[in-house]
């Protein structure tokens, strides 16, 4: 399996220099490297401000990196001319969190679906047939062709967002919290749709979410970010080695009242990206912190061939990650 | 029972987005009201707070009995004495409760001064105590900060402190953690549960998140299109759900041990209040629909246990 996407030491800093303000540098994404194989779903997880949305925009080159490179299907995106980049963008698409702001309110569904072709200058044999097949692909009634966005529900709008992203037949789709503003039953519909489309069209997804439970369900591989850096990359059925990933997992509420537990309380909050600490960014909140963590940044190191963590004191026994199924079997064997 | 809601119907013009809602809650208890957008769960909270007229709605029928007094039809002056005092509200967005132009500490003081008649210094001492109780680090420093200087989690703690300042008996928490990050959400939920148990409060927790319900509530009312479709102890809701909607809702949540593709979405979508179907409002999406469901509205029936279900096709509880 070849890698469709390869990200190499990618960083982005924003400089904030107002007229009456001190010049400040915000470290949004720092030294991020990973690969994504064709046909895989990579989940990017983290809390607000961890840099996951900036990462998505860097990959699509909607913003320029400060350092590092993005390789798409063997092509260094920095080497492309504007025209070549525009052509390549047909193959990589973005679905936004907010289906309400992604579509021009004055556009009818038909116009919204035909916009990508217009932008890329693609001539269509039959616009009507294209619109009808796109609507069918995302499970929408063809009667909605002439509706305006305000006449659609949140779930319908997100389906339109997905149809627009798939209109030009891309290879990579970056999904930035596509279900965060939807109800659970609508989320379940959208996730089922994305799964079906991935199988039938052979798509590769980069799925950004704050919901570790959803990511573990939907993705093959998980990348966990904290304050702009990768803290862990792991198969979605592995147990976390990084204490932050562990804390994220412990903070998700299992929908099972029999499994009530006192949530390991994570004190404190995420430090500011304007002034990242010299050592591990999680040190101030970490239950396993040592002096080393406060002074020295832990590098991302392999634990197994598919599992990496950036931690001086990874959780014990995680070198050979145990799957959730294995744990369940082990626990149920205990009388 | 501290609060009993019975036959509550809410009207907006010609529509009734909430109809025949009934539940009760006692001290020391957490009742979850769970539902998706358009289920009427937030309107129910608004009605309990007596704030419906502010959003253009009114109670058409039913009772909201708080400690023996029916709040429906109570004069605004009397409601105002209860609101922020014996009954307090925690909203989803802390900025709907906070004044951006005022330091947070004095905002907490207000409820204690208004409802408990404390003077300035006694109210301040009480606020600092509450802030420490909610594990706000360095309360004396935070007291003088403005809302924009605080993180989302800290702001929500201030809002909780404001709600507690009037020494309430009933807390109505409307999606109190929805806008927060997961690790912060876990902290806030834990704080709320501890408060209820330690102070013997009653809390109505309004949420769309079945995970939060499973981890915190004692009893649950599931709402769909303005009606309570099922009401039971929390374990019964998750292990022995009788209403097809509750069953379907639980199958929509991604669980740790689920295989990809095994989540089963509910077909169709939630109708708007203007287009509630006749009969059972879930019938167009229900796998067990019968002719009776299309015509007759099922009422919430309770069997021997306190497990109630509003469905013609459900097995008796």
Describe the structure concisely for a colleague.
Chain A: This is Peptide ABC transporter ATP-binding protein. The complex is a heterodimer of chains A (335) and B (317). In chain A, 30% of the residues lie in helices and 22% in strands.
Explain what this protein looks like in three dimensions:
The complex is a heterodimer of chains A (335) and B (317). Chain A is 30% helix and 22% strand. By secondary structure, chain A is an alpha/beta fold. Chain A has one domain (3-238): Rossmann fold. In chain A, the strands form two sheets. Chain A has an eight-stranded mixed sheet, with helices on both faces. A four-stranded antiparallel sheet of chain A has the order 2-1-4-5. In chain A, α6 (184-201) links the parallel β7 (172-176) and β8 (204-209). In chain A, α3 packs parallel to α5 (154-166). Chain A starts with a strand and ends with a helix. The model of chain A is unreliable at 318-323 (pLDDT under 50). Chain B has a single domain (3-86, 168-309), classed as P-loop containing nucleotide triphosphate hydrolases (Rossmann fold). Chain B has helices at residues 41-48, 52-55, 76-82, 104-116, 120-133, 139-143, 152-165, 182-199, 210-216, 234-239, 244-251, 291-295; strands at residues 3-12, 15-25, 30-34, 58-66, 69-70, 87-90, 170-174, 202-207, 219-224, 227-233, 301-302, 308-309. In chain B, β1 and β2 form a beta hairpin. In chain B, α4 (104-116) packs across α5 (120-133), α4 packs parallel to α7 and α5 (120-133) crosses α7 (152-165). Chain B is globular. The two termini of chain B are 23 Å apart. The interface between A and B is large, with 45 and 48 residues.
């Amino acid at each position: 399996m070849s890698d469709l996407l390869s990200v190499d030491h990618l960083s982005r800093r924003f400089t904030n220099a107002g007229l009456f303000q001190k010049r400040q540098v915000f470290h949004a994404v720092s030294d991020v490297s990973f690969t994504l194989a064709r046909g895989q779903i990579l989940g990017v997880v983290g809390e607000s401000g961890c840099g996951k949305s900036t990462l998505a925009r860097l990959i699509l080159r909607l913003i320029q990196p400060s350092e590092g490179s993005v390789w798409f299907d063997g092509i260094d995106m920095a080497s492309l001319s504007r025209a070549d980049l525009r052509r390549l963008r047909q193959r990589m698409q973005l679905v936004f969190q907010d289906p309400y702001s992604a579509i021009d309110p004055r556009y009818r569904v038909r116009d919204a679906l035909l916009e990508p072709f217009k932008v890329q200058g693609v001539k269509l044999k039959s616009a009507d047939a294209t619109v009808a097949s796109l609507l069918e692909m995302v499970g929408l009634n063809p009667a909605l062709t002439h509706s305006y966005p305000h006449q659609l529900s949140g779930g319908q709008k997100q389906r339109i967002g997905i149809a627009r992203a798939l209109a030009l037949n891309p290879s990579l789709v970056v999904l930035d919290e596509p279900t965060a503003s939807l109800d659970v039953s609508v989320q379940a519909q959208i996730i089922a749709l994305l799964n079906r489309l991935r199988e039938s069209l052979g798509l590769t997804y980069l799925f950004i979410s704050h919901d570790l439970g959803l990511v573990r369900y939907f993705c093959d591989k998980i990348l966990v970010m904290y304050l702009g850096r990768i803290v862990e990359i792991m198969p979605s059925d592995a147990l976390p080695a990084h204490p932050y990933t562990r804390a994220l997992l412990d903070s998700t509420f299992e929908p099972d009242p029999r499994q009530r537990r006192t949530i390991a309380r994570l004190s404190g909050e995420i430090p500011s990206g304007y002034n990242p600490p010299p050592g591990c960014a999680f040190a101030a909140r970490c239950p396993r912190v040592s002096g080393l963590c406060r002074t020295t940044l832990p590098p991302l190191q392999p634990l197994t061939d598919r599992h990496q963590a950036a931690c001086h004191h990874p959780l014990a026994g995680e070198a050979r990650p145990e799957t959730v199924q294995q744990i369940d079997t082990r626990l149920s064997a205990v009388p | 029972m501290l609060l009993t809601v019975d036959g509550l119907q809410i009207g907006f013009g010609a529509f009734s987005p909430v109809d025949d809602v009934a539940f009760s809650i006692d001290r020391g208890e957490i009742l979850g009201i769970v539902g998706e957008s358009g289920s009427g769960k937030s309107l129910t909270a608004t009605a309990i707070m007596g704030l419906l007229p502010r959003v253009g709605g009114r109670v058409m029928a039913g009772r909201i009995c708080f400690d023996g007094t029916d709040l429906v039809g109570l004069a605004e002056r009397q409601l105002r004495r209860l609101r922020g005092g014996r009954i307090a509200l925690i909203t989803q967005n802390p900025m709907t409760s906070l004044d951006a132009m005022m330091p947070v500490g004095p905002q907490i003081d207000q409820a204690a001064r208004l409802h408990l008649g404390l003077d300035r210094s006694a109210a301040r001492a009480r606020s600092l105590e509450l802030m420490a109780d909610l594990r706000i680090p360095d309360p004396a420093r935070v007291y003088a900060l403005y809302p924009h200087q605080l993180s989302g989690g800290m702001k929500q703690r201030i809002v909780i402190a404001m709600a507690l300042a009037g020494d309430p008996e009933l807390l109505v928490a409307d999606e109190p953690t929805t806008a927060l990050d997961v690790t912060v959400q876990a902290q806030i939920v834990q704080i709320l549960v501890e408060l209820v148990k330690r102070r013997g409060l009653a809390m109505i927790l309004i949420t769309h998140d079945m995970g939060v319900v499973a981890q915190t509530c004692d009893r649950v009312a599931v709402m769909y299109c303005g009606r309570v479709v099922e009401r039971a102890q929390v374990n019964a809701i998750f292990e022995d759900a009788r209403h097809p909607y509750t069953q379907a809702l639980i199958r929509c949540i991604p669980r740790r041990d689920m295989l990809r593709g095994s989540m089963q979405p509910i077909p169709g979508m939630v109708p708007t209040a203007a287009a509630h179907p006749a009969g059972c409002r879930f019938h167009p999406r229900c796998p067990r629909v019968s002719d009776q469901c299309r015509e007759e509205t099922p009422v919430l029936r309770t069997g021997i246990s306190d497990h109630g279900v509003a469905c013609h096709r459900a097995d008796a509880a």
